Amino acid sequence: MPRLAGALALALSAAACTAGDFGRPRPGVWNDVIVPSAGLWSATARGETVSPFRMTDDEEQLRDRAWRFVMPAHERSFFERQVSDFAHSRVLPVEAQSSTASDYFHALTGGSYRSQASRYNRLAEDANADRLLIGPFRANAGRVVAADRVRMRAVDASPQVPPEQRDPAFARVVENEGLILWVCERVNFRIESYRYALANLVVEMPSREAIRAERSIMALEAEAGPLCKLDLIGAFRGGAKPAPADKPVVYKG
């Protein structure tokens, strides 16, 4: 355990030194080679599904778009952001992330603001920014799911696909669906965090600005609904795996 804690501390320090604009990982050997390799090794060691397939453009973009939603909503949550960044790269399991709704409120109120209106405005702006980015992510996810349906139908139907391609294909579908479900979970967590912050701001510093913040959160909830109802194949939830090569089946859906 001490070794693990030390390794994590070293990794977090290195990540902190390589943070780019808005906290995003800056391109380089550490973020483009070392961390992804460590992520695949760690995920495999934990028994998670890992595919060796190269990613499509849409799959790459899906992971890029997911980054915002799996990060803590406030940049002052430094340690939590680093943990989430490593969860995004699969170095750490997603369970390592904080699920404490009060984190955002404490980060929001921890800095110096001119007035309570600034805090309410920041809350409304964060919720609005999330809302505007959910649509593009949902569209991206829809393209990935559609391509995965084609992928699995080809696996089932084509005798030219060798057996060793079947499991990696299914593993990629599991990875894609797992990411979409994770983003849905973290978006709902953001909404919970925003509502916690709004309620406690009203108690501590009542202001008419709370109305705008409330409307922003409601709009985010409305936009998040369709994402969490996206029609997936069901692989991540334990759906059908590819049949043996001599017993092809057609995937439903």
UniProtKB/TrEMBL annotation:
Domain of life: Bacteria
UniProt key word Signal: yes
PROSITE patterns in UniProt: PROKAR_LIPOPROTEIN
Residues of the signal peptide: 1-19
Keywords: Signal
Protein name per its UniProtKB record: Uncharacterized protein
Organism of provenance: Bosea caraganae
Lineage per the UniProt record: Bacteria, Pseudomonadati, Pseudomonadota, Alphaproteobacteria, Hyphomicrobiales
